[in-house]
Amino acid sequence: MLAGFEQSKFDYSLFVKKKEGKIVIILVYVDDLLIIGNDMDMINDLKGLLNQNFKMKDLGDLWYFLGIEILRSQEGILLNQLKYAQDLIKDIGLSKAKVALTPLEQNQKLTTVEFDEIVQQHQDDKLLEDKTVYQRLIGRLIYLTHTRPDITFAVTHLSQFMQSPKQSHMEAALRVVRYIKKEPGLGIFLKAYNKHQLVAYCDSDWASCPMSRRLVSGFCVHLGDSFIS
Question: Which residues cross the membrane (predicted)?
Answer without folding.
Answer: none
